[in-house]
């Protein structure tokens, strides 16, 4: 490649060039004799307008000073921003005026014995928009560094100096770091904020064959140091910027930068051009035959600040310019050599839109070249930044794309365009894909699809006017060229999601389910279905069907694979049905049937799950379904909806009672038959299932207030469920009949007393005399029935009597009456109690009861009297407080006290004081109220 063209600007000068510096269009030259000359780079007068116009340049001498220095200038730098020239001559630093060379601003005596110096210019914009420049300089004086700063047209010394162990040969200042080159090594001094004190850091050795150290400040605060044939790139902190070094064909004598190129002056007047990123050899120029008198090139510098930067090279008597060819030609050269990254750097230097047509074309070729070379991640990142349609990118993966969809989406033309570009521009034929199924390739596509999916979905939510990218070109390759209609957007989403799912299946199959669960996933049903079946991802297939509302297909899959499969068993079916809800009740019942037949308890969980979908199912329909298909599950279902979901529907409560009765009645009959004439166990304590069910029935009848009692007592009577009938009779207020059953049928006075205590504590109407009613039962017996008659009324045969058969005359309740009065006498009216006792009853036996009753009544009287006295005391206390309050408030009626209504003096007239302390005549009090309401309305209108 020929990037730079050498041009002889001046040849055979009658002087010996010692130093040279260049800035913008100006070149400043100093000679061995101490002369200084300023040249201006200009176009030749007879230059023709052509593509090579930059090559027709020459030098024009604009100023010179023969007595500039008595001795040769060892180093020179210009600072056009401050209009000064800094030179090192005869071991002193001189500051001259840039426009008038004979004006000497300053000779810094402190720098006597200096060997080299370095400057650092920083520019900041002020609030007024003016550029403010800050110039600092570091001067090497033997083994000492002197730091200076420019102010008021003079350099001033900073507070401290650095003393070194060796004498520096070269120094460069980058940001807040000083890079120092010694004869054998390089060091860095990091300047701390606000002080010249810093930390010294050793960087590297200089090498054994390099004559002098070379340190150069590069683009973006990067620094190069040299060691023999190798150049190392560091950042401003001295840390390696690149993992590799720039290797030259020989040991450089000097190095300069013309971004993005790094240029080295080698022995024998050879100049070599390379790039830093990427590391490429670009050009080699030989000046041995171009110089006068075969003198060697000894100076190489860049012409800083020039819009079309050139390089200046000089020998003892000649000055050459290395003119770069136009950037468009440089880009073309780089593209032809497949140096796409470098071509893009050059394109970005043109100060145009970095995504114009030509740049986009280079980036597209670069992305395809990366893909062809196996850099999939980097290639797809570039495709994403270019906003290339994912339909085209997916075509690069033929093993993942869907041919039917590709034809449908009409993107084959675009894919051919991309392939044609890759073939024509890159110089090799490409089918747009890489054979094989590497994980790296699929993983890169997966990451790309995740990013592009996010972009597509966010763009599709924006208004159509904002959805079209400003980068959209007419090549038909851009993302938004495939998003011009809702139908096209839908197809784009389908292809992206389906391909992403295939990537997950090949790399991270655990993410397949999460993709399918997304509410906005657009995976194509048939393609996804086949892919999941191929990989036997039945769980994910069920998720797919569920997300699309294809519940029958999902449930059929579960039914067909309930054995010897990853989804075997009934649990998956139960879980699926639990989440369907009321709208799908028909499907729930249809597919719950085969589960209930095989595992009734698990099948019941379909309708009793702790989920809103299960709780909101129509319970009447569910109960009817269970009645016909799993009647043994009716009671568990009713128990769940009543006890856990707190359903108070009377129908459900009544049905549960009846279902309990239906189960208990035959078990009870069988149990009584089995024990013969033996005394049966108390109700609810029978062995086995009977005892458990009867205990549930008794508890439910006791706690529930919502079952229908209309026909229930008769139903219980016919089945011989006496205790249950007693509880129900108590619910409807027939306490006498309930107590008759407890006392005379069941012969269980303890249960009767527990019943009375329960009714008494509920404090229902007429419940305060419940214990008196039990006393009557003890004394007078059942209503119009003997014990045997009552049992016959309840249809209890003599073989299955629930109590010992004793005649009424032999029943002696005296001890029970005494115990009743002793334990619960305080819950009965004493006068009514004594009146109910039979005439022959011995009152001495209830002496303790009578004694306690009298004491209790006396205590109650004392408590009432005490309470009355406390109330009266409180009343008197309040009255006293009221009187004291009235006396504490004084009303002064003076000569100036006027009525708030009529504004007349109150004087000795009767008056009224309102709570807000307003005083009015007694005759004006009614008008005062009306006046206040009028004022209130006026304020709030």
From TrEMBL:
Domain named CNH: residues: 14-307
InterPro entries per the UniProt record, alphabetical: Clathrin_H-chain/VPS_repeat, CNH_dom, Vam6/VPS39/TRAP1, VPS39/TGF_beta_rcpt-assoc_1, VPS39/TGFA1_Znf
Keywords: Membrane
Subcellular location: Endomembrane system
GO BP annotation list: autophagy; endosomal vesicle fusion; intracellular protein transport
Keyword presence, Membrane: yes
CHCR repeats: 610-787
Entry membrane topology: Peripheral membrane protein
Pfam families: CNH (PF00780), Vps39_1 (PF10366), zf-Vps39_C (PF10367)
Sequence ranges of Polar residues compositional bias: 408-433
Region described as Disordered: 408-437
One Gene Ontology cellular component annotation held by this UniProt entry: cytoplasm
Residues of the signal peptide: none
Domain of life: Eukaryota
Similarity comment: family membership: Belongs to the VAM6/VPS39 family.
The protein, known as: Vam6/Vps39-like protein
């Amino acid at each position: 490649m020929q990037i730079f063209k050498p041009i002889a600007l001046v040849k055979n000068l009658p002087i010996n060039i010692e130093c040279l510096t260049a800035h913008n269009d100006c070149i400043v030259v100093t000679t061995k004799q101490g002369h200084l000359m300023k040249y201006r780079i200009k176009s030749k007068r007879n230059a023709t307008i052509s593509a090579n116009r930059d090559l027709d340049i020459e030098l024009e001498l604009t100023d010179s000073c023969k007595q500039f220095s008595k001795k040769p200038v060892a180093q020179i730098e210009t600072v056009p921003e401050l209009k000064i020239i800094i030179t090192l001559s005869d071991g002193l630093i001189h500051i001259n005026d840039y426009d008038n060379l004979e004006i000497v601003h300053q000779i810094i005596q402190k720098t006597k014995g200096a060997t080299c110096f370095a400057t650092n210019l920083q520019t900041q914009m002020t609030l007024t928009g003016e550029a403010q420049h800050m110039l600092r300089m570091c001067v090497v004086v033997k083994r000492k560094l002197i730091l200076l700063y420019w102010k008021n047209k003079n350099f001033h010394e900073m507070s401290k100096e650095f003393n070194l162990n060796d004498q520096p040969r070269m120094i460069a200042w980058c940001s807040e770091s000083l890079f120092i080159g010694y004869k054998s090594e390089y060091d860095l001094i990091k300047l701390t904020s606000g002080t010249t004190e810093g930390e010294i850091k050793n960087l590297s050795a200089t090498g054994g064959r390099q004559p002098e150290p070379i340190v150069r400040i590069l683009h973006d605060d990067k620094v190069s140091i040299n060691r023999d044939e190798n150049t190392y790139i560091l950042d401003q902190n001295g840390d390696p910027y690149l993992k590799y070094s720039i290797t030259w064909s020989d040991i450089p004598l000097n190095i300069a930068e013309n971004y993005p190129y790094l240029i080295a002056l080698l022995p024998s007047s050879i100049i070599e051009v390379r790039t830093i990123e990427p590391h490429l050899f670009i050009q080699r120029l030989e000046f041995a035959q171009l110089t006068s008198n075969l003198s060697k090139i000894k100076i190489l510098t860049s012409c800083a600040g020039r819009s079309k930067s050139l390089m200046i090279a000089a020998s003892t008597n000649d000055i050459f310019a290395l003119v770069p060819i136009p950037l468009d030609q440089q880009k073309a050269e780089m593209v032809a050599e497949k140096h796409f990254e470098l071509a893009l750097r050059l394109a970005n230097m043109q100060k145009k839109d970095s995504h114009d047509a030509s740049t986009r074309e280079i980036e597209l070729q670069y992305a395809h070249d990366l893909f062809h070379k196996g850099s999939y991640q980097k290639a797809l990142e570039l495709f994403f930044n270019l906003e290339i349609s994912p339909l085209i990118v997916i075509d690069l993966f033929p093993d993942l794309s869907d041919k039917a969809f590709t034809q449908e989406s009409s993107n084959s033309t675009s894919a051919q365009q991309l392939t044609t570009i890759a073939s024509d521009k890159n110089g090799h034929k490409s089918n747009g894909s890489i054979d094989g199924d590497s994980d790296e390739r699929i993983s890169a596509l997966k990451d790309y699809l995740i990013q592009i999916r996010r972009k597509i979905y966010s763009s599709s939510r924006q208004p159509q006017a904002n959805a079209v990218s400003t980068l959209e070109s007419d090549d038909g390759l851009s993302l938004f060229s495939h998003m011009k209609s809702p139908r096209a957007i839908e197809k784009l989403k389908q292809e992206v999601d389906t391909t992403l799912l295939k990537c997950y299946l090949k790399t991270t199959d655990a993410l397949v389910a999460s993709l399918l669960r997304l509410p906005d996933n657009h995976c194509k049903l048939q393609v996804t279905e086949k892919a999941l079946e191929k990989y036997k991802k039945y769980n994910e297939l069920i998720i797919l069907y569920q997300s699309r509302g294809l519940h029958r297909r999902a449930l059929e899959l579960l039914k067909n694979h309930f054995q010897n499969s990853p989804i075997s068993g009934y649990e998956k079916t139960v879980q699926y049905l639990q989440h369907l809800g009321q709208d799908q009740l028909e499907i729930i019942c249809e597919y719950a049937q085969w589960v209930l037949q095989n595992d009734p308890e698990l099948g019941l969980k379909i309708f009793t799950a702790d989920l809103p979908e299960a709780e909101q199912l129509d319970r009447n329909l569910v109960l009817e379904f269970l009645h016909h298909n799993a009647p043994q599950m009716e009671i568990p279902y009713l128990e769940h909806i009543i006890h856990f979901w707190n359903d108070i529907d009377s129908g459900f409560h009544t049905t549960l009672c009846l279902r309990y009765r239906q189960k208990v009645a035959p078990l009870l009959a069988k149990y009584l038959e089995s024990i013969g004439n033996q005394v049966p166990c108390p109700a609810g304590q029978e062995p086995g299932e009977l005892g458990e069910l009867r205990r549930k029935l008794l508890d439910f009848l006791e706690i529930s207030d919502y079952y229908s009692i209309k026909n229930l007592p008769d139903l219980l009577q016919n089945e011989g469920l006496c205790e249950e009938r007693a509880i129900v009779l108590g619910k409807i207020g027939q306490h006498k009949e309930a107590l008759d059953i407890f006392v005379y049928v069941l012969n269980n006075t303890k249960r009767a007393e527990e019943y009375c205590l329960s009714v008494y504590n509920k404090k229902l109407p007429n419940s305060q005399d419940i214990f008196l009613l039990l006393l009557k039962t003890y004394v007078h017996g059942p209503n119009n029935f003997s014990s045997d008659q009552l049992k016959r009324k309840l249809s209890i045969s003599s073989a299955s009597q629930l109590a010992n058969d004793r005649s009424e005359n032999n029943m002696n309740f005296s001890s029970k009456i005494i115990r009743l009065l002793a334990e619960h006498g305080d819950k009965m009216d004493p006068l009514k109690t004594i009146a109910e006792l039979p005439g022959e009853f011995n009152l001495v036996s209830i002496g303790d009861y009578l004694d306690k009753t009298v004491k209790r009544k006396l205590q109650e009287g004392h408590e009432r009297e005490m309470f009355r006295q406390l109330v009266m005391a409180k009343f008197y206390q309040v009255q006293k407080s009221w009187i004291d309050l009235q006396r504490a408030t004084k009303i002064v009626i003076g000569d100036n006290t006027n009525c708030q209504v009529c504004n007349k003096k109150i004087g000795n007239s009767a008056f009224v004081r309102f709570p807000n302390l307003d005083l009015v005549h007694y005759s004006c009090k009614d008008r005062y109220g009306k006046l206040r309401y009028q004022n209130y309305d006026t304020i709030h209108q």
